[in-house]
Amino acid sequence: LLVSKDLGKHLLEVEDLLQKHGLLEADISAQTERVQALNAAALKFSELEGYQPCDPQIICNRVNHVQTCLEELEELAAKRRKELEDSRQLWTFFQEMEEAEAWIREKEKILAAKTCGRDLSSVLTLTNKHKTMLGELGNRRALLHQTMKKGEKILAKKTFSSVGIQEKMREVCLRWKKLEEVTGLHQQRLEDALNFFQFSAETDDLVAWLQDMYRIVSSDDFGHDDYSSQALLRKHRAVVEEVEKHRAAVLSLRKQLALLAPDHRQGVDVQIRVVEVEQLYGEVAEVAVLRTQWLQDALAVYRMFSEVHACEVWV
């Protein structure tokens, strides 16, 4: 049993062999106590004075022989345990590497099927999921690093053939490197999509604001007297200031567009959208200037009417 060369062909088989070996070691331990007791009893016959039923030397030789056999058995048991534990380390290494490969394959499928979203909300959701995956990737990287160290220790012992171990380590390292590259590319695509949809959302907000401003500055309400015209003019000047504050945002659209990924910035729709915003801003600014003049003209007219009325009253 102890000189068997069967070290198992997979982890479960090695675990089973180690369990059986543990029972054998327990049996040897139990027999050790019995052998030591018998040897002690036998040696008493070699120390008798007077009548000696057997030659003391024969007894001593027999006791030494039994003790030597027991020690050899214990040495074989220890050697066998070391071989089985080394085998367990080997098959544990291969199992962990297979688990790592399976995990890599699973993540490769997920990344291959992933899109970059259709709008800002979906991109943000996918980005959060990707961050979770990056955390899993970090944890798995640490586990793989530990497994690689185990493989290096097994190689250092030179107990088993190094070909299969080195091949497995090289294969998994290449797959892991490819996975990290694909993960990095997907993260970049998500960041590009996020920048694009944020740009689109900001552009849409700017368009909506400009449309509101256009409705305000194109109003035909110029007041009905001196007081109401002055109030409208004050409000309009505040609107003009707001329009002027947004000039920088409109002018920066082309810079922001240039920073987008080529696939996004080269789209005809987004380029047209930027031109539309610039044109709309120009119209708002132009109409705002005209409304300022119209309000000033209306205020001048109402002031003239007020002065004429005062003259009439005096006359």
UniProtKB/TrEMBL annotation:
Q: Which Pfam families match?
A: Spectrin
Keywords from UniProt, A to Z, are:
Actin-binding, Repeat
Question: One MF term from GO for this chain?
Answer: actin binding
Keyword hit for Repeat: yes
Which Gene3D superfamilies does the entry mention?
1.20.58.60
Domain of life of the organism in this record?
Eukaryota
Among PANTHER family, the record links this protein to: SPECTRIN/FILAMIN RELATED CYTOSKELETAL PROTEIN
Protein name (record): SPTN4 protein
The lineage, from the top, is:
Eukaryota, Metazoa, Chordata, Craniata, Vertebrata
